[in-house]
Amino acid sequence: MVAAVLADKRKLLRVVVPRPLLLQSAQVLQSRLGSLLNREVLHIPFSRKTPTDCGLTQTFYQLHSELQKKSGIVLALPEHLLSFKLSGIQRLCDGRTEEAKPMIRVQSWFDKVARDVLDECDVSLAVRTQLIYPSGTQMAVDGHPQRWQTIQNVLMLVEAHLWNVHYKFPRSIEIVPRPSGGYPFIYFLRQDAEDYLLTRLVDDICKGRLPSLQCAEYPDQHRQAIKEFISLSKVSSGTMDRINEMFKDKLHLKKVVYLLRGLFVHRILLLTLHKRWNVQYGLDPTRDPIAVPVSHLFCVGWFGFLRGG
Question: d(Cα 240, Cα 144) in Å, to the nearest integer?
């Protein structure tokens, strides 16, 4: 009913569904709208491999334009919409302006006349469904390979302090060992345990326990500058000058220090440890995956609100 009303010849209605629901959604739309005259349901795929010459772009536009005039419905996938949107920009960046101009014009027309109805919007709008089109020559990620080695070494230091943190703050952290060994499941509950762990990690690094940054070899004033830089949100200009001078000829070590600042000061490390296993990520191999209807979650949340929960 919503699709039939919104497709009013003034707007181009696009029903956006995840790929696993494409066939089922097409069958549902056909069964519901099949009895209406001149209501066409069309699926027009587009990927990065689709040719983008002017003739094909014009055909692509005409199909959508005619569907708009007939009050039809476009059944689309999120990756198809993003592919067309990014392909025009990609052609422009590559200097292929003759192909880019009509694609960007069509995309501008979509932005003005298209009306999108999202099914399973939590999937369609999730970060993992976004597309990234790499451009240019392949390059190593900034800080490679010390970037990955530093993170692994920090996680090893975290594991070494876990049970000490749990002993001091038993109500602030959950630690679940793996039955077969390996890195345990960690979940922080309160900030006191987080701050204590960060303090211990900073002390370890300043004592030279991080292989990628041997602070024990530096004089006291340099170690103090590093400690302030990776632990304080606001750093004095003198500390910044000392950091820049220390690593003027050692750019790879400077990137390690900046990485540690991001992990500790901006709490990126703690953000990852806030995720609860089998709730925010991962699958439980001992049970079957189930889906909870949104209406049920709403009712439960509303009942908790009425009870003051």
Answer: 23
* Domain around 171: 146-273
Same-domain status, 97 and 125: yes
DSSP three-state, residue 15: strand
> Do 88 and 159 sit in the same domain of this protein?
no
Identify whether residues 258 and 231 lie together within a single domain: yes
Query: What's the pLDDT score for residue 105?
Result: 94
State the helix-helix crossing angle for 191-206 and 251-264, rounded to 10 degrees: 160
The b/e string for 29-64 (b: 16+ C-beta within 10 A; e otherwise) is: beeebeeeeebebebeebeeeeebeeeebeebbeeb
Q: How far apart are CA 14 and CA 109, in angstroms?
A: 14
Q: 160: phi > 0 → left, psi -120 to 50 → alpha, else beta; which?
A: alpha
Q: Is the pLDDT of residue 291 over 60?
A: no
Lowest mean pLDDT among 106-110, 213-217, 252-256: 213-217
Q: What's the distance, CA 280 to chain centroid?
A: 13
Lowest mean pLDDT among 122-126, 155-159, 219-223: 122-126
